[in-house]
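User: I'm new to structure prediction. If I give you an amino acid sequence, what do you actually give back? Let's try with this one:
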Amino acid sequence: MIAPTSFFSDYGCHVRILEEAQVLQQLGNRVTICTYFMGHDVDGLDIRRTRPFPWRTHYEVGSSRHKIGFDVLLLARTISLALQAAWARNGAATPRFDVVHGHLHEGALIGWVASRLLGIPLVFDFQGSMTGEMIDHRFLNPKGPLYRPWRWLEESIVRLPSAVITSSQHAASLLQQEFHCAPDKITAVPDCANGDFFAPRPPVDASAALKAGLDIPAEREVVVYLGLLAEWQGTGLLLQAAQQLLSRRPNAHFLIMGYPSVEFYRLQAQTLGLNSHVTFTGKVPYDQAPGFLALGDVAVAPKISATEGSGKLLNYMAMGLPTVAFDVPVSREYLAEAGIYAQPGDATSLALALERALAVKEDSQARGQALRQRAVEHYSWGVAGAMIMDVYDRVCRKV
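Assistant: Good question. You get back a string of structure tokens that encode the predicted 3D arrangement of the chain. For your 399 residues, that looks like this:
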């Protein structure tokens, strides 16, 4: 696997990479992950890191010009490992690697080089449009002179792999309609949730102690958010919605978990007069996430991107939390009729949806139970792992 990010960190695509690797190993595979020098190791995974930049000891989440340098180092690390594997194959009964699995567009491009060196197939794990993400992150102007070159590069990368795995049916349709990718190359393997790990929890003293430790009054109705804090994630819109909701429902409290830009959004909350009704935790370790989510009466996913996945929805669903989200295709695909929807990008609509979720408790509880059942039945990693293995088998037979 090629992971062009600081694996492992406690958010987004990292969780998909982690859980894919773990289920593939449970199915009898050996997985080696090439990634950036930052991130923390995970027991049981073979992780190979790049050398660090001596003048750049941290990495911002999302689009950044510094990623180009990190990707050059990742390319060098990948080529080194591929050459070692190619040399080891001489006289060996079986090859060291059978498939290169590239995550994100940079991973697919770097993985293509490794696949050519080793003479093995490349599988591209597509998690949204590269240029679409760059526009969402305000790193690229769709009307500027650099848009067409980046778009050309994205279109070229999509043509490289033997097969493409997407995180949603919407992404599969996007590949066919906008990038003219052949339907027989695409397999939708949606983000999944570990239903045993993320599961509803009865009220216990530990939850009450955690709530008290966060200075959340016991009687408050808690809206939980877990993910990155950024404008393309809708964090600013969430705070605007919180201000509107609290004017009508002053017993609500927002538990906002994640990073980066915590201080930026804490200051924004202060400016909006939300200090006593919003708690920012910063980064929450993955293994502690279920305990924090269990404090919620309602979960919210205000992401506004129309092309990226939204894996946090699956964790909310597995926890049995009634979930409010903007009405975008990926949210509809996961939540279906059990979701509670707001108009995309509209803070007032989001506030009204949250008010409905908190006020109509019987309906919200029924929706939460339906979401839990949907997560267990349709979004388990056991099923997804078998789908990925089918893709591997298909591309290996063509070599």
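You can read the tokens as a compact description of the fold. Here is one thing that stands out. The mean pLDDT is 91.
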